[in-house]
From TrEMBL:
Keywords per UniProt: ATP-binding, Nucleotide-binding, Transport
MF terms (GO), sorted A to Z: ATP binding; ATP hydrolysis activity
Protein name: ABC transporter ATP-binding protein
InterPro entries assigned to the protein according to its UniProt record, in alphabetical order: AAA+_ATPase (IPR003593), ABC_transporter-like_ATP-bd (IPR003439), ABC_transporter-like_CS (IPR017871), ABC_transporter_ATP-bind (IPR050166), P-loop_NTPase (IPR027417)
Keyword Transport: yes
Repressor in keyword set: no
Alphabetized CDD domains for the sequence: ABC_NrtD_SsuB_transporters
One Pfam family it belongs to: ABC_tran
Lineage start: Bacteria, Bacillati, Bacillota, Bacilli, Bacillales
Domain named ABC transporter: residues: 1-231
């Protein structure tokens, strides 16, 4: 990738990404952690084609897709469901705007199967305001999951949830991903969440962001929360926390 990005202000230029490079293999779950405001969401916007970098390329299966929209599926921090559409129709939305989507009858059958598998059977004709926050997040995730794109970008999808619901959603996501094995790039501020979910973790520096560490997560799958109490897990959590504290300290010293 080697992506560079900056924002222009009236009298200056604010660097955001500084030669940032990362890879996601087929069927791999990769997490990104870094200080708040370091440019993680900007990176997602570039990968998704919403922004163009000042330098570098986004490659997918060896092809340059820089600046092209519709190449990835995206789940933002908030569910972003359309309130006038039923739950079923919200799940089907990604297919409606994609040229690679299956016929509607096939997509509808698939959506109903997945809604049932995640505990939302009977809510197909409900509207978003009738669902809890965790249930809405499941719908948003299924919408991304059932889109035809090979890569899913998940931008802190559980950050707005309470601790108990977040734990439930992490366990649910692990189960669904084990069944589907889509390629995932996942942003989180939660180091424990990254270690629980991911195969690899990229640790970013302060803005302008660059990769300062790449961590292979060695724990066998399928995973459960019990691993968060193991010494190897706690040691990796401590090390990543230390790296991030050092980056935050650099920010304070530079002010």
């Amino acid at each position: 990738m080697n992506v560079h990005a900056s924002f222009r202000e009236r009298r200056s230029t604010l660097p955001v990404l500084d030669g940032l490079s990362l890879t996601v293999e087929q069927g791999e779950f990769v997490a990104i952690v870094g200080p708040s405001g370091c440019g993680k969401s900007t990176l997602f916007h570039i990968i998704g084609g919403l922004l163009k970098p000042q330098g570098g390329q986004i490659l997918m299966n060896g092809q340059d897709v820089t600046g092209q929209r519709g190449k990835i599926s995206y789940m933002p921090q908030q569910p972003a469901l359309f309130p006038w559409r039923t739950i079923e129709d919200n799940v089907l939305l990604a297919g409606e705007v994609s040229a690679d989507a299956p016929p509607r009858a096939e997509a509808l059958a698939d959506a109903r199967k997945w809604l049932s598998s995640v505990g939302l059977a009977g809510f197909e004709q409900a509207y978003p305001h009738m669902l809890s926050g965790g249930m809405q997040q499941r719908v948003a995730f299924l919408r991304a999951l059932l889109s035809p794109q090979e890569l899913m970008l998940l931008d802190e999808p559980f950050s707005a949830l309470d601790a108990l619901t977040r734990s439930d959603m992490q366990r649910w996501l692990l189960d669904i991903w084990e069944q589907n094995r889509r390629s995932v790039l996942f942003i989180t501020h939660n180091i424990e969440e990254a270690l629980l979910l991911a195969d690899r973790i990229y640790v970013l520096s302060n803005r302008p962001a660059a990769v300062i560490h790449e961590v292979d997560v060695p724990f066998d799958r399928p995973r459960r929360e019990a691993i968060t109490e193991e010494s190897a897990f706690l040691e990796r959590k401590r090390q990543i926390s230390q790296w991030m504290r050092e980056e935050q300290q650099k920010t304070r010293l530079s002010k």
